[in-house]
TrEMBL record:
<dbReference type="InterPro" id="IPR008030">
    <property type="entry name" value="NmrA-like"/>
</dbReference>
<comment type="similarity">
    <text>Belongs to the NmrA-type oxidoreductase family.</text>
</comment>
<protein>
    <recommendedName>
        <fullName>NmrA-like domain-containing protein</fullName>
    </recommendedName>
</protein>
<dbReference type="Pfam" id="PF05368">
    <property type="entry name" value="NmrA"/>
</dbReference>
<dbReference type="InterPro" id="IPR051164">
    <property type="entry name" value="NmrA-like_oxidored"/>
</dbReference>
<feature type="domain" description="NmrA-like">
    <location>
        <begin position="2"/>
        <end position="283"/>
    </location>
</feature>
<dbReference type="GO" id="GO:0005634">
    <property type="term" value="C:nucleus"/>
</dbReference>
<dbReference type="InterPro" id="IPR036291">
    <property type="entry name" value="NAD(P)-bd_dom_sf"/>
</dbReference>
<keyword id="KW-0521">NADP</keyword>
Length: 310
């Protein structure tokens, strides 16, 4: 696959991982797309990764996307249902805001002659659950973008990654126990024994995208799942104690604590059907990669994180 790569969402977990890995690999010309390339996060990354071109683009503004994608060979795309504008549309009844953004990027890429798109998609939870869970819109929207890309196979080559459950979620949803003001509690609606495919998003994502770029014929039109392996949801708490020596425990909270009907349904679905529907196809890809995915214990060691400050 050609070497001029545009990265949508370069300041986020996934896009930032792609930026880091491809920059370190060398041999790639990189263009990072951001709503605000003058933001502190974009400026920090520009200083950290010299030689990367930063351009302004908005996923709701097709002309800006055409301009930003002109001249590139391939584009990595991640969309986010939980952005403010997309959530506002969803609250008003428009559940297709994320699909519209993904379609905008694909259409702009086709318009300016981009050869390939690597899209961060997900399984359809509606399909995985045989129609039981139909309201996990950030799964459905991404899968709908994937289907749209495949429908344009005669105009652009489509590649897809499916990320597992972010290990970073355990950082976000943590607290110090009010009982002893010492134990770190990792809170999630998942059942403690639910097996989930975990992913160290900020490190793992870029290596899988790099593999796709290096093996385009093998990966064309396929979904490459991104995870180091299946673990019980409670394993991240146990791993934290092993890595840091600090007390920790897993705390299951009610599904409804998320405050979003969509997330309530998602956690129900994950407990019953999982992110990948039990698939282990990713393990075959992992064996081929010159990269070792982090275990939960390694994740905590690499972060050097002692726990929440309050």
């Amino acid at each position: 696959m050609s070497k001029f790569i545009a990265i949508v969402g370069a300041t986020g977990f996934q896009g930032g991982s792609v930026l880091k890995v491809l920059h370190a690999a060398g041999g790639y010309k990189l263009r990072a797309l951001s709503r605000n390339p003058d933001s502190d996060s974009a400026k920090s990354l520009a200083a950290e990764y010299p030689g990367v071109e930063w351009v302004q683009a908005n996923l709701n503004d097709t002309p800006s996307l055409r301009k930003a994608l002109t001249g590139v060979d391939a584009v990595f795309v991640v969309t986010d249902f939980f952005q403010k504008d997309t959530l506002e549309k969803a609250a008003a009844g428009d559940k297709d805001g994320e699909f519209a953004q993904g379609k905008n990027v694909v259409d702009a890429a086709i318009d300016v002659g981009v050869k390939s798109v690597i899209y961060s998609s997900l399984h359809s939870m509606k399909q995985l659950s045989n129609g039981k869970y139909t309201g996990v819109h950030h799964f459905e929207g991404k899968h709908k973008v994937e289907e749209y890309i495949l429908s344009k196979a005669d105009e652009i080559k489509g590649y897809f990654i499916y990320l597992g459950y972010y290990m970073e979620n355990y950082v976000r949803f943590s607290r110090i126990s009010p009982e002893d003001n010492q134990t770190v509690e990792f809170t999630t609606p998942l059942k403690p024994t639910t097996k989930i495919p975990l992913v160290d998003t900020t490190n793992d994502t870029g290596h899988v995208v790099k593999y796709i770029l290096e093996h385009p014929d093998e990966c064309l039109g396929k979904a490459v799942e991104v995870s180091g392996g299946y673990y019980e949801a409670q394993e991240m708490a146990k791993a934290f104690t092993k890595a840091t020596g600090k007390p920790a425990r897993f705390v299951q909270v009610p599904y409804e604590v998320t405050g979003f009907d969509e997330l309530t349904e998602m956690f129900n679905a994950l407990d019953e059907f999982g992110n990948f529907g039990g698939s282990t196809r990713f393990l075959e890809y992992n064996k081929k990669m010159d990269y070792t995915f982090a275990t939960p214990e390694e994740f905590w060691k690499n972060r050097n994180w002692d726990g929440p400050s309050n």
